[in-house]
Amino acid sequence: MIYVVVAVAVTIVIVIGVILSKGGSRQEPGVVSFRKHIDALSPESRREVMDRVRPAPRDDDFDEKPKG
Description:
By secondary structure, the protein is mostly helical. The chain is 72% helix and 0% strand.
């Protein structure tokens, strides 16, 4: 009789573990999360954030003369 109770308890714990592991909150990669936040912003706010995030041009990019 005790073996049946232990088996049922173990089964319940396993089922709960599987449910929690699949249904828990999933952490998105940083880039995906950043994209979702940016998409939710207004165009003006989005422009300000993208200007801060965009890498600054290197100095040697301006030293070259246009070819042509």
